[in-house]
Amino acid sequence: MFWEKKLDAWVENIRNVSALPLRLELWNGQHYDFSSGTPEVTLKVPHASAITSLLTPSLANLGEAYVEGKIEVEGKVKSIIQVANGLASNTLKAEGRLGRMVRSVTHTKKRDAEAIQYHYDVSNDFYKLFLDENMVYSCAYFENGDEDLGAAQLKKIDHILQKIQLKPGQTLLDIGCGWGALVLRAAQKFGARCVGVTLSKNQYALARERVEAAGLSDRIEIRLQDYRDVTGTFDRITSVGMFEHVGIKNLPTYFAQIRKLLADGGMAMNHGITSTDIENGESPYGAGEFIDKYVFPAGELPHISTVLRTMQEGGLEAFDVENLRRHYARTCGIWADNFEANAEAIHRVTDEKRYRIWRVYLAGSAYGFERDWISLYQVICTKAGRSAQQLPWSRKYIYAQQ
């Protein structure tokens, strides 16, 4: 048959280029081994209709086939991700549609709210099964490299609050506050008065519960609110893992809003995932396409150069920039391990399709950070035009009290 000849040629071509620890099993009992070693991954094709996904094995095609149940995959998820990338990189050219495409998305308050709720309002119980005890859903900070996830997440929050020199009695706005971990820490340890905003109904409800349980309702306000609708002024502003939803074209407006809300002499910090492509392109081999379709609809990742330029356009001066890519590779790797370890419990709180989406998404993200497809930057900024006398001489203040 025609497809058999094409499949034979495809397998032989990959074998000649790279030995992958993969076994391919077809519906008719036929199988192919892609190396002479013991397979770490077994890919099962229950029907001939899935062959096209294999012959053009972009990460979008393979991911969709797995998520939709057109193929079955056995093996450790980290090995699965490595094999999938091996199939893509040894078959396809990392250019054109499968290269680092620049995707332009129209953002409205309604669409952004829907995208946030799609991703975050799965259920709080779902996230509890792979996050740390404080439910921090952003890059942790492994100061020494040997911390457990919970300790590294608290260090991340303290690292941020130390960077912005948060003092007792100051007001803090946290844009995209998640389940409230940062504002709780800011009030408890640093004595700040905080406002946290989110568009996720589940996050809003649980964050309010946690604030009340901590006896901090007089110091922390949680709002179900778009950052564009916030008014007033704040001594300090943080945005952690939120600006990926803003849209590249909207970044100058986003930073201008931060400037508008920032008190004179105030400090802000933007912590977010960035593209490593200078043209703001998404991850290669269709990985970005998969994430846009199944994980983060309407998400866009700017290059750090775009972040700095649009920050200046918004009236802010960046004065401290830190790359935490290694830290996010470790964070996502731990999340992926937790997800695998709690697979049975996760199946009880969500359906098979979402389980498969998140299984490959978490492990794939760890792989992407490790391979420099994506990165993570913390940028500290103030209102542009300040006297140089108001800026710190060094970064010693960041580490003095940690």
TrEMBL record:
Keywords associated with the record: Lipid metabolism, Methyltransferase, S-adenosyl-L-methionine, Transferase
Species of the source: Herbaspirillum aquaticum
InterPro entries named in the record: CFA/CMAS, CMAS, DUF7884, SAM-dependent_MTases_sf
The protein's name: SAM-dependent methyltransferase
One Pfam short name: CMAS
Family: Belongs to the CFA/CMAS family.
Gene Ontology MF: a single term: methyltransferase activity
GO term, biological process aspect, one: methylation
Residue ranges constituting the DUF7884 domain according to the UniProt record: 12-93
